[in-house]
Amino acid sequence: MSKLACDIIDTPATMAAKSHLRNGFPLVIAPSTNNGLSGNAENIGKLLNRRNYFFVPFKQDNPITKPRSIVFDSDYIIRTIELALEGEQISPILL
Q1: Which of 14, 83, 9 is nearest to 52 (CA)?
Q2: How far is C-alpha 34 from the geometric centre of its chain's CA atoms?
Q3: Which segments within the chain are labelled E, that is strand?
Q4: Could you tell me if 51 and 22 are in contact, meaning their C-beta atoms sit under 8 angstroms apart?
Q5: Please, are residues 4 and 14 in contact by the beta-carbon 8 Å criterion?
Q6: pLDDT of residue 95
Q7: Dist CA 56 CA 84 (whole Å)
Q8: How far is the C-alpha of 19 from the C-alpha of 56, rounded, in Å?
């Protein structure tokens, strides 16, 4: 996510993502990271504001033992993809 947010294209994964976006297709991201509410929060925010980036809804993983960790909710994967194809984002942040 950080590389995409900063437009760093130096791996096959980032190249595929940018190529996909360049062709006008939505890119669905299912975040799971230990620093989503700290160092990576800025990059997630950047991507949330960009066209054709869609997030599978995510929530705080474990506020007691991992206070900065986020994890996507797998129950929303298919629905996120369906809506992304229509250009819509489900509320990306769950409580």
Answers
A1: 83
A2: 14
A3: 27-29, 32-33, 53-55, 58-62, 66-72
A4: no
A5: yes
A6: 58
A7: 10
A8: 20
Give the angle 4-60-89 at the CA atoms, nearest 5°: 55
Instruction: Dig out the tokens for 37 from the structure.
Output: 């509410």
- pLDDT at residue number 39: 86
DSSP 93: B
d(CA 40, CA 81): 23
Q: For every one of its 95 residues, what pLDDT tens digit does the chain have, with 9 covering 90 and above?
A: 999 999 999 999 999 999 999 999 999 999 999 988 998 999 999 999 999 999 999 999 888 999 999 999 999 999 999 999 999 999 888 75
Query: Whats the size of the chain, residue-wise?
Result: 95
Q: What is the dihedral of CA 1, 89, 56, 22, to 10 degrees?
A: -40
At 63 the pLDDT is 87
